[in-house]
Known about the structure:
This protein starts with 7 loop residues before the first strand and ends in an 8-residue tail after the last strand. It has a single domain, classed as Rossmann fold (3-Layer(aba) Sandwich). The chain has a seven-stranded parallel sheet, sandwiched between helices. By secondary structure, it is α/β, with parallel strands linked by helices. Helix 3 packs parallel to helix 4. The protein is built from six helices and seven strands; from the N terminus they run βαβαβαβαβαβαβ.
Amino acid sequence: MKRFKNKLSLITGGSKGIGKAISLGLAGESSDILITYFRDKKNALKTKDEIIKLGVNCDIIKINLSDISSVEEMTNYIKDKFKKIDFLINNAATGINKPSKSITSKHWDFVINTNSKAPWILIKNLSEIMPSGSSIINISSLGSKIVLSNYFSVGVSKSALETITKYLSIELSEKGIKVNSISPGIIKTDALKSFPEGSDVRNIENYDTPAGKPLEAKNVSDLVNFLCSDESEMIRGQNITIDGGRSLTT
């Protein structure tokens, strides 16, 4: 029997890139899937079809995570319709890929709301319907600790997300809910195209790792599956770096 049969996983931004790999990975272990998307309905429907072919159920929800009132409404909808969430993966993220001096207050609010505040609201509200043994995983970034060019807004928001992870891992421990975060190294996805030429994340040398091959989205998916499993019961409030050892050599 697959590990996550009769479970329901919510993956924000679960239709593309790392989020899609996570969605397919959990579906491959027989979890039903609920994914959010922002603009690209075509890709969301395509991912939904791929998930259903794995023999599980899949629903998609359009949401602008920077709009906190919409996030609150979505959590109420999920609680009413689905009644239970077993795994919550806060994967969706955005960024204004410029130096700090070029970022406005409006930019700041947009990124912080999407990358930090929305995950907190989702955890706060949906943990009410998460049973003991559930798992919450926040997808962070090495940019929270390593200074990368044109990465200020993302790096700051991900630092906040990692601190949220620590605090809520303690607060939710009495409910038997695990909370951890993952900081992947640089993975070649379409999201990197939004960065200006010459940015650190587009430097081909940064894809080289001591492991001898580039990091892939599936590697993150495999780690998510482990953190959702019973085998990770004693891992709480940790930020786990997965980058093939790349950050040890910079």
